[in-house]
């Protein structure tokens, strides 16, 4: 999350001494009657205790707390001293702050994160363990519904996932945003094989779908994570569960030219003739052709895909490749005796498509990848 000290406007001598980790200077300043121990920087609202907590200056935190510095004064972004100490893994500082009355359930104003979420996201195992011992909620969800397990899974922190689950974290929780992501799906999409394996061992459902109907296998196939696809197939996942728009994992793999993944899916029973259920009715071969993935097109043809299959608009695979100008794919299809005269429903032929400059509809599964 970067360096949170972005502005020094309104910074006092005490702030500067804290930032520099100068214990003697802090002692000297605290001994004067004129010092405002809770003074805040103008732009960001950061107190000396906040800065000391961020930097992990344990001795200075002790001094400030002895002088009754307020432990729950947050910066303007809602981050408290214990929040930033947790974010940067300063476990001893977290302990000191909580002993002095710090509230570990305070959320930041931007995302609604608590200290446990940011510690989990950064993989600070010791800090996560201490926060849990101190009563942090392992199932807290931020404004998007992201929990500590989501945060740890996103970044592949398997040890943190273990700790959270032992403390009662729900690995089936879905985010509350438009995607409805689950921890297993997030880990799979990011390619964190070890985390995926551990979540499966902990009982995560490999066939659970998000709000868009996308399975964990879909996510891994879309991103081309071969090791995770293998792992999921070993768990006997259903290879033909489609997203809400009818896109299957093999559609997703074809979209991005992941030929090895296509192979694995077909070996496990994936149907390469499935068409999407949206207004286009795309097939994997047509998607790969439209994207210019020659190797994937060749493999799908070898696996028995029909080069003359038409989508809902009557467009063939050759039409798609011609429209997008993918010469190598066109040559390959012609070698396979694709019919050059099959027209779309509007009467347009592949040669017409190749000769025109016209607005293209988006090829491939309807937004299989998220923006």
Topology summary:
Layout (H helix, E strand, L loop, with lengths): L12 H7 L3 H8 L17 H8 L2 H9 L14 H7 L3 H9 L15 H8 L2 H9 L14 H7 L3 H9 L16 H8 L2 H9 L14 H8 L2 H9 L14 H7 L3 H9 L16 H8 L2 H9 L14 H8 L2 H9 L14 H6 L16
Helix pairs in contact: 1-2, 1-3, 2-4, 3-4, 3-5, 4-6, 5-6, 5-7, 7-8, 7-9, 8-10, 9-10, 9-11, 11-12, 11-13, 13-14, 13-15, 14-16, 15-16, 15-17, 17-18, 17-19, 19-20
Can you tell me about this structure?
With about 375 residues, this protein is mainly α. Among the domains are: about 1-110, Serine Threonine Protein Phosphatase 5, Tetratricopeptide repeat, CATH 1.25.40.20; about 245-370, Ankyrin repeat-containing domain (Serine Threonine Protein Phosphatase 5, Tetratricopeptide repeat, Alpha Horseshoe), CATH 1.25.40.20. It is built from 21 helices and no strands. The longest helix has 9 residues, at about 60-65. Residues about 1-5 and about 360-365 have low confidence and may be disordered.
Low-confidence stretches: 1-7, 358-367
What coarse outline follows from CA principal-axis ratios?
elongated
Task: Please give the count of helices.
Answer: 21
Q: What is the H-and-E element order?
A: HHHHHHHHHHHHHHHHHHHHH
Major beta-sheet overview = none
Task: State the separation between the terminal residues, measured CA to CA.
Answer: 21 Å
Share of helical residues: 40-55%
* Computed structural class: mainly alpha
Q: Briefly note the CATH topology name of one domain.
A: Serine Threonine Protein Phosphatase 5, Tetratricopeptide repeat
**What CATH first level of one domain would be assigned?**
Mainly Alpha
Tally the beta strands. 0
Give the DSSP E fraction (strand runs of 2 or more residues): under 5%
Q: CATH superfamily of one domain, please?
A: Ankyrin repeat-containing domain
- Determine Rg (CA atoms, Å): 28 Å
Mean pLDDT level = 93
Architecture of one domain in CATH? Alpha Horseshoe
Pfam families: Ank_2 (PF12796), Ank_4 (PF13637)
Keywords: ANK repeat, Repeat
Protein name: Ankyrin-1
InterPro entries: Ankyrin_rpt (IPR002110), Ankyrin_rpt-contain_sf (IPR036770)
């Amino acid at each position: 999350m970067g360096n949170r000290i972005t502005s020094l406007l309104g910074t006092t001598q005490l702030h500067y001494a804290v930032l520099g980790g100068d214990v003697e200077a802090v002692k000297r300043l605290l001994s004067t009657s004129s010092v405002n121990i809770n003074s805040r920087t103008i732009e960001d609202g950061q107190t000396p205790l906040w800065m000391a907590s961020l930097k992990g200056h344990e001795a200075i935190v002790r001094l400030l707390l002895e002088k009754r510095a307020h432990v729950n004064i947050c910066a303007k972004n809602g981050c408290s001293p214990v929040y930033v100490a947790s974010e940067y893994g300063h476990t001893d500082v977290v302990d000191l702050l909580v002993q002095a009355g710090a509230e570990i359930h305070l959320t930041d104003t931007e995302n609604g994160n608590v200290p446990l979420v940011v510690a989990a996201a950064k993989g600070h195992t010791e800090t996560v363990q201490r926060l849990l011992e101190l009563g942090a909620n392992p199932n807290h969800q931020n404004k998007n519904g992201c929990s500590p397990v989501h945060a740890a899974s996103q970044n592949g922190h398997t040890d943190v996932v273990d700790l959270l689950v032992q403390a009662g974290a729900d690995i089936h929780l879905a985010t509350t945003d438009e995607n409805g992501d689950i921890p297993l799906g997030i880990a799979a999409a990011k390619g964190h094989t070890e985390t995926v394996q551990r979540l499966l061992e902990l009982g995560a459902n490999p066939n659970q779908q998000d709000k868009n109907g996308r399975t964990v296998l879909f996510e891994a196939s879309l991103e081309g994570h071969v090791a995770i696809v293998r792992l999921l197939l070993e768990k006997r996942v259903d290879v033909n569960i489609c997203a809400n728009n009818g896109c299957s994992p093999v559609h997703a793999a074809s979209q991005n030219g992941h030929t090895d993944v296509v192979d694995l899916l077909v070996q496990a029973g994936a149907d390469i003739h499935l068409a999407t259920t949206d207004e286009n009715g795309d097939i994997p071969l047509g998607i790969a052709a439209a994207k210019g993935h020659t190797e994937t097109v060749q493999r799908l043809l070898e696996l028995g895909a029909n080069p003359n299959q038409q989508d809902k608009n009557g467009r063939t695979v050759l039409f798609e490749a011609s429209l997008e100008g993918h010469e190598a794919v066109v040559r390959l299809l012609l070698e396979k005796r694709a019919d050059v005269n099959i027209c779309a429903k509007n009467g347009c032929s592949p040669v017409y498509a190749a000769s025109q400059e016209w607005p293209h509809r988006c090829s491939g599964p309807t937004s299989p990848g998220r923006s």
